[in-house]
User: What shape does this take?
Amino acid sequence: MRKRNLLLLVSLFSLSSIAGVGCDNSTNTPTTDDYDDMFEEATPTVEEETISLEGYKEENYVFDENSSNENGSVCYEIFVRSFYDYDGDGIGDFLGVKEKLPYLKDLGVKTLWLMPIHQSPSYHGYDVVDYYGVNPEYGTMEDFEALVNQAAEYNIDIMIDIVFNHSSTQSPWFQKSYKDFTSKNTSETSMADWYCWSETSKGGYRMYNGNSKAYYECRFDASMPDFNTENPKVREEFVNILKHWI
Assistant: This one.
């Protein structure tokens, strides 16, 4: 039996956060144009739209059974919620992905990249509440493990997206951080500096819970407070999360 593999993908948003400073103390306020540019779709050039496929031969599309994740192969990204609904509740799930593994194998897929699968109040899952569990709408942890095990039978690895730039405002960590910050708790167990707080308003920060003395950094969305990645305890927790999934 082939050894199963579970790959971990730290979200693209995370890389910029971990590589740079944790809390941005600048006073520059992003403009509406800044946010528009962030999400603006690139317009393909005429040249890009008219690239000729002439000269391609049929063998270019024949999957090489000897290919592996080491020498180049197909990685297929799946948004579990919209892929395949196994239990008929209108939401895609782990068992739905598992059901379609033969189809994915026929496509030549060697790695399945799953968009965020953790518990989240949003449909997209990028504002995580619990990093150690799975979204119950997608199934149970046992369902996920069954998917990983069955995928290994088809020589398919599973890669999961882990979002380390920010969490959900509903995360217990953020809720405790808010309480510790507002109560000025500086004890060993304080989580006040797990996120980036300010008692005054500034660019990239939002007021929380109507408290004019508590603003939190949220560069992407108000529902996604940014972690303070300069905090060693936060980094240690990230490592623990990765070890858990590995």
